[in-house]
Structure formats: structure tokens, C-alpha cells
Amino acid sequence: MCCESKRRFLLLYATQKGQAKAIAEEIWQQAGAHGLEADMHCISEMDKYNLETEKDPVVIVISTTGTGDPPDTARKFVKKIQDKTLPPDHFAHLQYGLLGLGDSEYMFFCNGGMTVDRRLQELGAQHFYDTGLADDCVGLELVVDPWIDGLWLALKEALQLQKEKEGMNSAVDAVSSSISTAPHAVHELKLSSEVQNLKLEDEGARASDTLSQKLDDINLVTPARDTEPSLVHSVPPVAQSALNIPALPPEYIEVEFQDTQGENPHLSSLISEGTTFEVPVIKAVQLTREDAIKTALLLELDIADTTFEYQPGDAFCVICPNNVSEVEELLHILGLSEKGDDFVCVKVKQDTKKKGASRPQHIPERSTLKFILAWCLEIRAIPKKAFLRALVECTSDAGEKRRLQELCSRQGASDYTRFIRDSNVCLLDLLHAFPSCRPSLSLLIEHLPKLQARSYSVSSSNLYQPGSLRFVFNVVEFPASPSRPVSRKGVCTGWLAELVAPLLHPNKNSLDTKGKSSLAEKISIFPRPNNAFHLPADPSVPFIMVGPGTGISPFIGFLQHRQKLREQHTDWEFGETWLFFGCRHRDRDYLFKQLQCFLENGALTHLKVCFSRDSSTAEVAPPKYVQDVLRLCAKEVARVLLKERGYFYICGDKKHMADDVSDAVVDILSMEMEADKLEAMKILAMLRETKRYLQDVWS
């Protein structure tokens, strides 16, 4: 191991989008101020650490992805520790503390961290510090900050106990003396993301890794008329507080402009998840009317000449670039408009103080500046507090500098949540709001996360349409707000909509001799199989599908597949199928009116639809939402789930639909079983556990 001192601890992170890594780096940076040294590694680098022989305390920071899965970087690790042949005392020597990251908008909150935590416990490992579960729905920092604050004393006590066990009491005087001055505490923080348990108080400068910035250190005149805080303006008490701000992250990247020319890397080099496929978009259809509130598009990809494979219910990812105008605007603000097509070389600064610094994997060593900003960096990402702290040093105006300090401080935590996190503010918004801030390109590479490929549900069956793949999406719209004065479209959906515009509105010049479009743009995709959201293996098992709006997408693939199976296997027994679909207006956004065809050919047994915004003259108002229609079919739903052991699938919006559907199912089970609500919830939990109640949801 790289750190020989007994004040060493092992720090592992497992990240999907970079948050867990950023938090681990924050722990690593703070460790030195507490007389400790973190031996930090990605959990996937199993050749650089060995938990089987690890004697020092272990700190693990791990996120959750998909439907409660560990991040991709942790898959090999999880598979290794889940080996059923491992004895129950396999990790009896191990002391660890775990910080899990998740989002309570999704059903399996922090399940990636809890899976690792539970398995380590089963194998005999012991907590030296209580597990923290941070919720991105309310703000990770509400748990992360106090968890890190309490970590240092727990680590020192764990190290002291370890040395006492080894009979090396003479070597622990320094650690003992540092602990004896603090009141003894049992480290059971019981950290959860319930906001009522996490009211952070202004505690002054509490640690050596924070900086105190007093108001009278700067000349800041606050207009008396501004009584409400905003992104650029604060009010008391924040405006008059001494601030605890994070330590300045060390710089570690340098960028050199080169005179030589060449070619940019292939997009496949940016992806570590597996094989990528460059495929043409051969069809685009707008499924909604022009006056619909949302614009839904169906795209068809030609995968005939590839080895791309999928099942109905699977997802796949689209590699997309940032918006061209936003990239140009960023280049302009950085004063690099004339250098966008110049090649740059990105490497690690020789004199950096960052431990184990390396060029980020998603940044090519050599490419054009535009390539990095367009394809590599998530320029729409919500800036982390460490980034704000670094931007302070790039800001010349005293008032702007102070406000950025406030936004990254403990005292300004609620302002950060309100004006940056909840307002979806990005780097461009900050640079407009704080015009004296002029960061370097290297700073952007250090702090902006990887531009993530976007995931979409497959809306077709390879049995029904061999050689093609379809998917459906809404073009996402982000309206302007006080913190973000311009409206924007989704990074990927906006790009796709612009890309396929010629297919949606073809002219004579874009058609070939057969009347088909000759403007087949290509996109890069890679598979992301869903291990659970598939049709029942036994075709005689009945199932229920709930998919309002574009949530119907995977169920089109289900029904196409079922139709083809019925044609090919006339002697098979097929279970009944139910589809509950809802949208706003029957004539504007009823996405797949051809559902009637599935009813006619028998692939679909029951179709229930509702329209939430259509007016009705009926004496009894029709149901507005899918959960209302489910309740009207309570006996049938209970029969399918309880008597016939059927499956229940939900796809669509998590916050405004999936939770309401779940509540409706609990009510149905309670009513039809004549049981109390708790018993019904246990039945639903059992259905989830046995993979008969399945969700593909987003927030």
C-alpha cells in the first residue's frame, strides 16, 4: 500500500456520475488536516487494495444507479463479495464506515450502498462508524457534511483501538492525546435524509480545513431595497455571518494548445460500458398534435448490420453532445471563441498537490477544445460546492466573490439548495450572474463531470421488427426561472429533435427515388440490458401494464412480442394482458391509437384509458388518472396478482404517478383481502421481492 503510516485508512468510492468520487476526494483532502492519510481508490481497482488482508479502517462512499443497483464501477466487487461459498467470518477482521448516496424519488433508495453494507455485515465486518444515507432529492450535503464532520473522531478511535490490540500503546500517544481532549462519544449518528433531523446550526469555524471569511473583510454595499435573497444577493443572517467555506481543491490539470492538426477521438473511446454502435435514424414520427403540452417523438433505428441485441423491456443509451449554441457561448465567455477548433493536450500538472492525480478517463489526451466541451463535459451539471469554492478564486468583483463564498458555505446551505440545486442552475447561468468570474479551461475539466449518455426504454420487439429498434420520448422543456433567465430543451431530447427535423418535415430534395428520406443521420448507442423488466418467462402467466404518457413505450414492445408469439405458437396457452394508459387529451396526445389493433389480434385482452384534461358532460365524471381506473378494476387486479400469481409493470413518472399507483395497489389489496393496510403493504413488498411488481420509472 502507498501509505505506510499507522494513521492510514483505506478510502474506496464507487461512482456512476462522479458524485461519490467527488465526496471521496473531499474526505481525502480533509484527512491531512486531521493527521490522517487516506489511501484512496475506485472500488473497481481491486488490484490496488485487498479487503481480505486489510487491517486499517475502511471508508466506503457508494452511489446507487438504475432501479437500486450498485454503480457500474462496483459490479465486480459486489459479485465477488456475494459469493455464497464465503464463510460468515470472512471479513471478521474488517472495520468500516459506509456513506451511501441515493434519491428517495426512486423506490430502492440507497440500495447500492445498503447491498454492500448488508453483505459486509453478513461476512463478519464491523462498523466503526454508523452508516450514512444521503438523499439527492433533498440535498446530499444535509447528510454528507455532518457525516464527514463526525468521521474523524471515529477514525482516530478505531485506529487507537487497533494499535492497542496490536500491543503498540507506546506508538499511539499522539492519537490518544488528540482524543482525550474531546468528550468520548459512541458514534451512532443514525444519519438519514429526514430534513427534520438535519437542521444544521451556524457553529462558527469548527475545523482547520475551513476558512472564516468575515463580512468586514470586504467592501460590500447592500442596497436597502433588496429584502429577498436571490442567486446573486443575500440577506441577513447569511449576509452578515462569518462563513465556513470548504478548503480550496488543489489544481491538477493543465491544458496546452497545439499548432498541429489531426482527428478527434471516436465517440466509442468515451464509453467504458461496452461496445458502441453507430446506427442510422431511418424514421421519425411526431406522436402528439402541435397544440399538445408536450411534444412526443418516435424514432426508429436501423440495427440490421450490427450485433446489437435486446429484449422488450430493455433500455439502451444514446451518446449525445451538449447544445451547440451553449458550447459557443461558453467559448465566448472564456475568451476562446477563436480557438474552438484548435487541438489541446490535457495532462496532469507536475507540481500538483492532489494525491494520485490523473487525467479524467472521459477527457481525451488530445482533441479539439470544442470536442471536449461538446462531447466530454456535462456543462449543464449543477455545480458542486467545491466548484463554487474554486470559482471564488476566479472572480474579481468583491461582492460577487462574497456571494459565491456564501453559496458554498455551511451558512449558505439553504441558499445553495434554493437558488442553485432546486433551480437547476448550471455553469453558464453562474457566469452570466457573476460576470467578473472567469475560470480557466483546466478548472472546468477538473470540476465538470462526465457528459453522461442518456437512457431510453426500447419500444419495439426484435421478433416483430427484426433489424430495427424503436424508442419514444418527450422533448424535455426547462422553462426560465429567476435564477435561470433562459428556457432550455433537454440535452439529448433537444439534440435528437433537431437532428430528425428533416425526417419530420421532409421536402422533395430529401427524398430518394422510392420516396424515402435520404437524410439518415447516425447516432451512437450502446445496450443497457434490464435484468428484471421483461415479460414473464411463462406465457400463460397474466400481467398488468400501467404506462401513462411515454411510459407506454416498453409495453408497445411487450405487445408486439406477444402478438408474434401468438402467431408462431398457436398451440401455446397465453395469459390475459391488461394495459392502463392515460394522457391529457384524447385528440392531442393519445400516443398509440393503434392499441386497438392489439385488442383485435388478441395480444391485448383489456385496454383501459383515461384523459385527465378532457371535459365531460357525463353525470358521473370519468376517471382522470390511471390509479383511478385501477381502483375501478380492483377485483380484477387483485385476482391477477393474488389468485393467478400474475405480474404488475409500471413505467413512467415516479413522483407524480408511480407512487400514486403503488398506493392504489395497496388500497386494492387491502379491500379485496379484507385486511388492514399494513398487511397489504407486506403483500406488495413480497411482490417486489419476488420480481412480480416491477418498475421502470424516472423523476
UniProtKB/TrEMBL annotation:
Among SUPFAM superfamilies, the record links this protein to:
Ferredoxin reductase-like, C-terminal NADP-linked domain, Flavoproteins, Riboflavin synthase domain-like
One MF annotation (Gene Ontology) recorded for this entry? flavin adenine dinucleotide binding
Q: Which Pfam families match?
A: FAD_binding_1 (PF00667), Flavodoxin_1 (PF00258), NAD_binding_1 (PF00175)
Which parts of the sequence belong to the Flavodoxin-like domain?
9-152
Source taxon at top rank: Eukaryota
**What are the protein's UniProt keywords?**
Amino-acid biosynthesis, Cytoplasm, FAD, Flavoprotein, FMN, Methionine biosynthesis, NADP, Oxidoreductase, Phosphoprotein, S-adenosyl-L-methionine
Instruction: Name the coenzymes or cofactors required.
Output: FMN; FAD
The FAD-binding FR-type domain is annotated at: 274-536
Q: What is the first-listed, main subcellular location in coarse terms?
A: cytoplasm
Cellular compartments per GO CC: cytosol
Q: Which compartments is it annotated to reside in? A: Cytoplasm
Q: Give the EC number.
A: 1.16.1.8
A Gene Ontology BP annotation from the UniProt entry: homocysteine metabolic process
Write down the chemical reaction(s) this protein catalyses.
2 cob(II)alamin + A + 2 H2O + 2 H(+) = 2 aquacob(III)alamin + AH2
Assembly mode: Forms a multiprotein complex with MMACHC, MMADHC and MTR.
Q: What is this protein called?
A: Methionine synthase reductase
Organism per entry: Acrocephalus arundinaceus
